[in-house]
Amino acid sequence: MSIATKPRPADTVGRPLRVPASRRPSTLRYWLAAVIAVVGVGAGLTVGLTAYRDSQRQIDTFDGVSIPGTLSVQLDEPGGRVVYYEGVESVRFDDVTIAITDPAGTPVELARYRGEMIYDAPDSTQGRALATFDGAEPGAYTVVVSGVDTGRLVVGDSVARRALPGVLAGLAITGLAVVAAVVGWLRTFSERSAPTVR
After folding, report:
1. Domain boundary assignment for the chain
2. What span, in angstroms and rounded, lies between the C-alpha atoms of 147 and 132?
3. Which of 104, 100, 109 is nearest to 137 (CA)?
4. What CATH topology corresponds to 62-161?
5. Each residue's pLDDT tens digit, 133-153
6. Residue 89 per-residue DSSP state
């Protein structure tokens, strides 16, 4: 017993996919992609700028002193702190002499800041991270600074640690929104460009 099969019409082989006219995507999908991009970019910028402004407000709370000078820094709990210089852009770690003692009067080891951390100081000068130290116990730490005759020495928390997560989150939101919008736009364009059958 044999089973006959109906051959595939030769003129259909290799033809491009045809989309029924009734299923062709609406141009509203272009607008939807644009809305996703605008809303996503706006949300990402809002998150990033909010994190940046919060870090700037944090800087205003830092303890500081004009150089040369002596500064008392009160630590309510143990933890690391960053030493910043605000003033002339050319001043670096090796240009200043910094001595720190803990509440018991014991010298505290100072480590050069790894990397580059720059911010806009409240007086419109440039702030730069110079060093870090570990406050092993709460209390008043004495900071004595000399070596230059200009600028301020400031001690506080890490600006980067506070701002970076929010800024990265803002960039991620912006990037995902743009990618989603582009993919949606290209898919709509591709489907609308396909030949149609009625």
Report:
1. 62-161
2. 18
3. 104
4. Jelly Rolls (2.60.120)
5. 999 899 999 999 999 988 999
6. T
Indicate the Cα dihedral angle 189, 190, 194, 196, nearest 10°: -50
Cα(134)–Cα(158) distance, integer angstroms:
12
CB atoms closer than 10 angstroms to residue 64: 22
DSSP 22: G
SS3 146: strand
Token readout for 173 is 């939101």
> 87 has which bridge partners?
126
Of 24 and 131, the one with more pLDDT = 131
pLDDT in tens, 82-131: 999 998 888 899 999 999 999 999 999 999 998 888 888 777 788 899 99
Q: Which two tokens stand for residue 140?
A: 């008043």
Kind of pairing, strands 63-66 and 111-112?
unpaired
Question: Residue 179 has which token pair?
Answer: 């990618």
Who contacts 53 (Cβ-Cβ below 8 Å, separation ≥6)? none
Distance between CA atoms of residues 148 and 11, nearest Å? 87
